[in-house]
Amino acid sequence: MADIIIGRQQIFDQKLNVCAYELLFRGNDFNLNYKDDAAKATQQVITDTILELGLNTIVGPHKAFINFTTQNILDKTPLHLPKDRIVIEVLENVEIDSRIIANLKELSELGYIIALDDFVFSEMWTPLVEFADIIKLDILEMGELKTRELINRLKPYNVQLLAEKVETYAEYRYLVELGCDYFQGFFFNKPNTVSGKRMSVNQATAIQLLNTANNPDVEFEDMTKIISLDVGLSYKLLHYINSAFFALPNKISSIGHAISYLGLKEMRRWINILMLASLSSKPEAVMQNALIRGKMCEELAGLTGNKSGDFFLIGILSNLDSLLDMPLDEALNQLPLADDIVSAILHKEGLGGEALDCVISYERWDISSIAFKDVDQAIIGDTYIHSINWAKNVMGNIK
Questions:
Q1: 0.70 surpassed by pTM
Q2: Which helix (H) or strand (E) holds 137?
Q3: How is 52-106 classified by DSSP, letter by letter?
Q4: Which one of 76, 212, 344, 394 has the fewest beta carbons within 10 angstroms of its own beta carbon?
Q5: How far apart are the two ends of the chain, measured CA to CA in Å?
């Protein structure tokens, strides 16, 4: 089997809930500039995603947008996939002719969702607009004026609009007002405001607990006292450790027992995760992304034989600006962090910084920058899949 690495990018609805993922892929044995290789790559990602990894592992209960080439459509490749789980994304370089139109129309009539990628109005594409379900708009390429013009032109058609490459919250807001239904881009992972934001009382309390957990001299008794005095925290800790996530032979019923069972490392991890989640009212995907970063940094450290505790913290705290809606350096200043952790997060310095840089490159699908020491790129891809699974389990057990 060819080495393929798989990535994904969230697609949000108007309320910023994840409703789908676009699957991204690259293969060492394929040159995607060639038509035949591109078609084979799509076939391979389908095999890897559906048969090897399982669609639920990659996208959970959500739909998967999959790019299909001219040859894939002519071969009716989507028929091998469940129509209720995928979206057929027709690439902008697909050669539109009567056969392509007929095959896509047949797939549409069978119940498959059709999305047109990087859409620009032309006579050639007009027949597809008549039955397409979703049209993707590259707002970065078009700019605001052309985006507004195209959206107005599409109003007579029964299509939903997906704005991609949305980079700022302001862009998301004006696109909502224009009637866009879905959004894709890195806007969700950036602060909405970057100055003049004060912490609420609840946030200040959460920061205090974070400080306690990450103090190098913290004792079990310190955490036991804080958690025991808060009914909500006590409940969450017991729920977390009694969940299937740990598969305990015997149930735990006391805070002291729970803390001693987990140990200091896992307790710090749990407090970091829980407190970061409670600090933010952002969409769940933002917190999940922080967890994926943390776990992936930790796994990369393990692959190179390095201690991984700090790497996990580096990963999850690298998203603190988007969770708190404040500049990252200001957010980090409120925690008792070692200088090397701060420099890793802010400046990508040291081994932890290199790991974080690799993880963010994977997240953004910057293929040329996905590298960490001598770890094979396909293995880095495996750590991403493992991290998705882990983050999904954790999110289900901290509520």
A1: yes
A2: strand 134-138
A3: II-HHHHHTTSEEEEEE-HHHHHTTGGGGS-TTTEEEEE-TT----HHHHHHHHH
A4: 76
A5: 39
